[in-house]
Amino acid sequence: MKESLSSLKITVVFLILTASLYPIGYWLIFHMESAVPLMLSVGLATVTTCLIFKKSLGSLGWSWGSWKYQWLSYLVPLGYVAAAYLIMWILGFGEWYNSEYVTALREGYKVDGWSDTSVILFRFLITASISFILILPGVLGEEIGWRGLLVLELSKLMSFSGIALTSGFTWAAWHWPMMVAGVYGNETAPLSYQLFFFTLGLMSMSVIMTYVRLKTNSVWPAVIFHMSHNAFIQKFFNPLTLQSTDSGWYLNEFGMVLPVVIFCISIYFWRKGQQEFGSAQPASELLSPKNS
């Protein structure tokens, strides 16, 4: 009971600090032309919460864990993003590929003699390595909060489903002000439509990320998962897709297809989480070194 009350206090303070720092991070988006400060504000709220409650920063899950789950966290987002965009291309919601974008890439990379296929392949390799790594600072700032602290504390209060859905909804809601303000999303679909599918996608991702967080007792698989998701959507598949006036209803995190694909995959991890971490007791009671 005492541990549960302590976790509830930590969770509430973390959420209050995150909300309090949000306006500063949002303001910096326009002055630094980057979302990284806003993402790092979650990390700052996390560290501050740990200091207030004299909680060790080591408890956030810094151990590396099994390489199996690092690779899983890298490949699952690549798989579902590729599958979603393939579906969109086949159904005509967007076309493969945007030749003007490929031309701009060729000029930027200074590889004038390369074919479109070579440029696209090179772009994929850059996305899968360099672009992926460059995303680390901002994503790490977020993930030590959402999966490092929040999931850990929620695991002392509720079962697997509650942890995944609560942390996922909180994560999605943190993005809503930017979407309402029109700085995040698209100009095609109604805001309510975008909010629904964006939230569905992030809550579905949260199911998978909560599973690997609890399975490994490490925040790194969640960091890698988040980095892979962002990199392959933002740096490869979305810009390479030739869009029509109606594409906003289907593409990216704000359209219908990708969130539905993630949701379908998340069902498998939800079932595994229910089986391995239970539904009738806090997940923390089922964590053990053998799961690492």
So how many helices?
Answer: 10
Give the low-pLDDT segments. 288-292
Let me know the largest β-sheet. 2 strands, antiparallel
Order of helices and strands: HHHEHHHHHHEH
Structural class: mainly alpha
Shape: globular
Strand order of the largest sheet: 1-2
- Terminal CA distance reads 27 Å
Attribute tags:
mainly alpha; two-stranded antiparallel sheet; 10 helices; disordered C terminus
Brief characterization of the structure:
By secondary structure, the chain is mainly alpha-helical. The protein has helices spanning 2-32, 36-52, 67-91, 99-109, 116-134, 136-154, 160-180, 191-216, 220-240, 257-277; strands at 94-96, 241-243.
Would you write up a description of this structure?
The chain is mainly alpha-helical and 292 residues long. Helix content is 72%, strand content 2%. The protein has 10 helices and 2 strands. The protein has helices at residues 2-32, 36-52, 67-91, 99-109, 116-134, 136-154, 160-180, 191-216, 220-240, 257-277, and strands at 94-96, 241-243. It has a two-stranded antiparallel sheet. Helix 6 crosses helix 9 (220-240). The longest helix has 31 residues, at 2-32. The radius of gyration is 20 Å and the shape is globular. The relative contact order is 0.15. Residues 288-292 have low confidence and may be disordered.
Itemize the secondary structure elements and their pairings.
Layout: H1 2-32, H2 36-52, H3 67-91, E1 94-96, H4 99-109, H5 116-134, H6 136-154, H7 160-180, H8 191-216, H9 220-240, E2 241-243, H10 257-277
Antiparallel strand pairs: 1-2
Helix pairs in contact: 1-2, 1-6, 2-6, 3-9, 3-10, 4-5, 5-9, 6-7, 6-8, 6-9, 7-8, 8-9, 8-10
